[in-house]
Amino acid sequence: MDNQAFFYIDGIPTKGEWFDLDTISGWDEVEQQLADKFDTEIDEVLCADVEGLAKHFYASSSDSFSMTEWLEFRESKDSIGLADEVIDAYMENMGSSCDLDDILEAYQGQFDSDEDFAIDLLEQTGDIAALPGHLSYYFDYEKYARDLMMGDFFAVNGYYFRNL
């Protein structure tokens, strides 16, 4: 997942460029590159568009980007060992203010359907094993999955999480 942002100078979008937010060191670097490229002094740097996880740190209503929060987040996200897509899915539901350790604790895996998730959960907990083999065919996995998703769990883009 590419984390990029389009920053521009003084409300003039033609005086802007895309930056790789995975390598940028902060506002000073953005301002310096824009000043050098457009050979001008800068009053204000605005953000017009953001891609990737960084979108959770962008306020389109004010063309602002929270660079400090992004840099802190970027530094700590690698320590939890989850793919950006998983983190993005959780943040879609919970917002950017979520704790990264919560994502790790809540993450259950990736599944094709709620029913597949429910079957996997039953197998992991051993609950379905308590039924004699021939009775397990009568278990309604679809209804069980629906009940799980009504409060205990949620899914975004095929990634499943437990509500903490």
Number of strands: 8
Shape: elongated
Instruction: Give the H and E element order.
Output: EEHEEEHHHEHHEE
Q: List low-pLDDT spans.
A: none
User: Order of strands across the biggest sheet?
Assistant: 2-1-3
N- to C-terminal distance: 26 Å
Give the helix tally: 6
Average the pLDDT over all residues and give the rounded result.
Answer: 90
Estimate the helix proportion, in percent: 25-40%
Biggest sheet statistics: 3 strands, antiparallel
Alpha-carbon Rg, integer: 22 Å
Provide the β-strand percentage band.
15-25%
Structural class: alpha+beta
Can you offer a commentary on this structure?
Helices cover 37% and strands 23% of the residues. The protein has 6 helices and 8 strands. Strands 2-1-3 form a 3-stranded antiparallel sheet, covered by helices on one side. β7 and β8 (159-162) form a beta hairpin. α5 (114-125) packs across α6.
In short:
With 164 residues, the protein is an alpha+beta fold. It has 6 helices and 8 strands.
